[in-house]
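Re: the pair you flagged

First of the two:
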Amino acid sequence: MFRVRPDGSLANGEVFASGIGDGTLKSGGVVDGMKCDEAGNIWVTGPHGIWNTRLVYQRGKQYDATDVSGIISIEPPVKGPEYPTLLPQVDADGNDLDGLRSVTLRAPLGTYTGWNVRRTGFSQGDACDLTGGYIPFALTRAVRRASGDQRPSLQERYGDLHRYRAVARDAAARLVSLGYLLPADEAAAVASAVSQAQQSGLTLQETDD
């Protein structure tokens, strides 16, 4: 990390964070790649991290992994080259900034990911293809503080279901104005979001923490 002088030059270089050589990272590479989210959190990749690398598996000469076709003649497969898995930049809640932001992302009830990892018992830590993840927000401030969750709770964000409905309506109207949502689908999109909020615990009247 460097300090930026008024003239734009850099000074006072210092190590901000490192997992190299202290046992934090496994052997076989170094940290490479970094992003900063809206809240100022810094995210870096690392070798053999469960989020950022995958392996190409060799299943025999007659099997084509590029289009998942052919005949598998080696099982279990032999580990081949490693390649990185790139993830999009996220906001303070961990939700993607890139792409089309739906009503769900504009009026979020949690953190939504386009990736997930396998649990203990079968290929632990490996990416679970085509399966996303959902990490719900706590309902109240007290609950999130007890769990150490830094993301604001549903009641801190929206207060009650009336206010959430207003946020969802604004989100849907915005998408309609941009041409991403048909006017005929606007009411259904809002109703779906409100139903999910109700299932998450939001009520018509704000309650105390």
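Second of the two:
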Amino acid sequence: MSEALHPEEVVTSIVLVRHGHTAQTEGGMLYSDPTAMLTDKGREQARAAATHLTKEKPDLVLTSPSQRVRDTADIIAAQLGLVAETFEKLHEWQVGEWEGRSYLDIKKSQPELYKAWTADPIRNAPPGGESIEGLFHRAKACLDELIKNHGGKHIILVTHAEVVRALFVHALGMPIDNFWRVSVPTGSISKIDFSPSFATLQYAALRP
């Protein structure tokens, strides 16, 4: 054949990093609080990620506006000789009235409300919060904007577990109901390549 089966396409490589460990993570809390800080363990995770990511040779580092994410991104960017840029729209899942509470606490103190939410934890939102379905569409819109503005680049995106899960679901064409089946530990690194006609998960939840 004189023509390639798969014409060359522009590929945008996105390395997804979940922020480092926090006290709220340790306590199993639901939290959107943008002021939550990294623990010493979280900073160690960020430094380990930074060392691992030197081999990636990225063009830019983007970060959620949350402090814990920004601090993780700054550690990584400094190691790479870059300055992290804030992507305002890529914030944490908004948990509304469940801020600072654990699932167990909610289940014990508000059993009917918890039961109603768990009947469909993808499409039902916490009181005053955001549904996972809504977060998924927000993350997808952010990805589209990112590729439009930085297509063909090699990007490190430091963000939150739920955003990483949403981009996995999108990239792999998974039913959104599988969202909660994906584990994204603090400080973990994943990589997805995107082009106009395909997405390839290169690796997931690597812990350096």
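The chain has one domain: 12-206.

-B.
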